[in-house]
Design brief:
Largest sheet of chain B: 2 strands, antiparallel
Strand content of chain B: under 5%
Strand content of chain A: 5-15%
Number of strands of chain B: 2
Structural class of chain B: mainly alpha
Oligomer: heterodimer
Structural class of chain A: alpha+beta
Number of helices of chain B: 12
Radius of gyration of chain A: 27 Å
Number of domains of chain B: 1
Radius of gyration of chain B: 21 Å
Strand order of the largest sheet of chain A: 2-3-5
Number of helices of chain A: 5
Largest sheet of chain A: 3 strands, antiparallel
Strand order of the largest sheet of chain B: 1-2
Helix content of chain B: 55-70%
Largest interface: A-B, 16 and 14 residues
Order of helices and strands of chain A: HHEHEEHEEH
Distance between the termini of chain B: 43 Å
Distance between the termini of chain A: 68 Å
Shape of chain A: elongated
CATH topology of the largest domain in chain A: Alpha-Beta Plaits
Order of helices and strands of chain B: HHHEEHHHHHHHHH
Shape of chain B: globular
Chain lengths: ~180, ~350
């Protein structure tokens, strides 16, 4: 159904258009003055000033792997994150943990763990799905590289970003 | 004696056109970006040089170093001709603008023609050919539409532009821009008749048609230079970039420079006709006659005054651009043909009546 837009009936001085120009210029010049006099500051000079300290708690930056307090990698290569990743940025090559290893009970660990940061959409589903709390989204956001290969984070890089995370993980509790 | 005139003219051309107007074009591009940024609560280009002042230089280098690409489907000869046809008339009009009284006995105007405003309109209207050629030679739909719009818009507003100047010429009784400025310096600016002969009933009554003229002239100038709110030939939301869609690198830069040069020369003309050109208000430091000896520091002050006024008017152009939304095409045509044409005609009659009554 067509809607007839009612046009406002303008006074003669409004039809002259000049009062409209003047009131418009009052607004723009007001902004001009406020910005120039520094009363209003919106833009941040990015590379010099950064937003880092003000990032919110729930900020989702680059995903990274973490180790636990015993310097053991938490990831058990279950590949749930690989399967849930919407843009398929994660590639995991699992391997068996040899029986003489201290952590042989865990059975499986990632041999290679690659996240393609060109593909990653920072959705956080990997962190959400991980049963071992091994992958977390950190607050790093300026992920750059000069080649495609450089933009793929391998296992070493992921642990370098992730570091150690202390917290309860039941899997390696011998009593369980 | 001829070679002296030639040398003096060459020096004035080089200094006024290439050392002042072209850098002013670059600076007004920078000012455009900084002012628009401030109006929109942003910062704008502030990295290259102090406060980003060298941004224009960086832009120029970028334009020069970019690949000069000519698409396959264009009509090559006209495609190459068009940018020059936009740039050259814009700079040529600066020949008759008096940008100062005189310096070391030399009149500060390149060509002291007795048909100043007519020359400006005659040459400025040539730049429409550049735009039409660009639109047609590009051989694709957006430039074509932009060119068509530019043609009708510039031709329509040329009428009201020319007619709006007629009352002023009637008042001054003079077509020589230097004499017009001198008259204003002695008898009050057209828009500020507060000294000399301006302080009379005639001066105050004539202020009404002059004000109408100024509004018509400024608005037509916006339309002539394709600036917002009348930038329909290149409105980026509908026509990509209008008539210069197919252009890149230095050829695009010529369109860009031509547009800004036209804006600066237009401001210069408005300053000369309405705001007393190089003269200071209230007759300060005004020479007695056109041939009077002017001390060199008076001459420098006059040149500075002219450029201050021009720069203020350019800032006005810029603020208007970032204040008003674009007109619709039928509104533009209606404004030009139904309102401004009639107002300008009526204004001529009104001026004539006032002058006849007070003669």
């Amino acid at each position: 159904m067509a809607i007839v837009v009612k046009r406002p009936k303008l006074k003669w001085w409004e039809q002259l258009y000049i009062p409209g120009i003047l009131s418009g210029m009052r607004i723009t010049l007001g902004h001009f003055y406020r910005t120039l006099s520094g009363k209003k500051k919106v833009t941040m000079q990015y590379p010099e000033e950064k937003w880092d300290e003000h990032l919110p708690e729930h900020y989702r930056g680059a995903p990274a792997l973490v180790k636990d307090e015993q310097d053991r990698e938490r990831c058990v290569a279950c590949q749930l994150c690989e399967f849930i990743c919407p843009p398929r940025a994660i590639t995991i090559k699992p391997e068996e943990i040899p029986s003489d290893d201290k952590w042989a009970k865990v059975e499986k660990r990632p041999k290679a763990f690659d996240i393609d940061m060109i593909r990653c959409i920072y959705c956080g589903l990997c962190e959400e799905v991980c049963p071992e709390q091994a992958i977390y989204l950190r607050k790093d956001y300026a992920i750059t590289g000069t080649s495609r290969a450089e933009m793929v984070h391998d296992k070493d890089k992921l642990y370098e970003i992730g570091g150690v995370r202390v917290g309860l993980v039941n899997k390696w509790n011998e009593l369980k | 004696m001829d070679w002296q005139i030639i040398i003096a003219a060459t020096v004035k051309i080089v200094v006024f056109v290439f050392l002042v107007t072209l850098p002013l074009v670059a600076m007004s591009v920078w000012a455009e970006r900084r002012v628009s940024a401030a109006i929109q609560d942003r910062v704008g280009p502030n990295r290259v040089g102090p406060a980003g002042l060298l941004q224009a230089v960086a832009d120029g280098i970028k334009f020069l170093l970019k690949e000069d690409f000519t698409p396959d489907h264009v009509r090559k000869g006209y495609f190459w001709l068009a940018p020059a046809l936009v740039m050259v008339p814009a700079l040529m009009t600066s020949a008759v603008l008096p940008f100062g009284s005189s310096l070391f006995g030399e009149k500060m105007v390149i060509a002291d023609l007795d048909v100043g405003p007519l020359f400006v309109f005659a040459v400025a209207s040539l730049s429409v050919y550049g735009i039409v050629l660009a639109g047609w030679a590009s051989n694709s739909k957006y430039p074509f539409l932009g060119g068509v719009r530019a043609t009708s818009q510039m031709i329509s507003y040329e009428i009201s532009l020319g007619l709006s100047v007629v009352p002023l010429i009637m008042i001054y009784g003079e077509l020589n821009l230097s004499s017009i400025v001198l008259y204003q310096a002695q008898n009050g600016w057209a828009l500020l008749p507060l000294w000399g002969d301006g302080l009379s009933l005639k001066g105050f009554l004539l202020f009404i048609p002059v004000l109408i003229s100024f509004i018509v002239f400024m608005t037509s100038m916006f339309a002539e230079t394709n600036r917002l709110p009348f930038d329909l030939p290149e409105c980026e939301t509908e026509l990509v970039a209008g008539y210069h869609t197919e252009y890149s690198s230095m050829k695009f830069a010529l369109f860009f420079l031509g547009e800004y040069a036209a804006m600066i020369i237009g401001s210069g003309l408005a300053v000369t006709l309405f705001l007393g050109g190089w003269s200071l208000p209230f007759g300060w430091l005004t020479p007695e006659s056109a041939d009077a000896v002017v001390p060199w520091w008076h001459g420098l002050i006059h040149i500075g005054t002219f450029f201050t006024k021009v720069i203020l008017l350019i800032l006005f152009f810029i603020v208007i651009r970032w204040t008003l939304p674009r007109f619709r095409y039928d509104q533009l045509m209606r404004l030009g043909w139904v309102f401004f044409f009639e107002i300008a005609l009526f204004n001529v009659v009104l001026t004539a009546l006032i002058m006849w009554w007070l003669a």
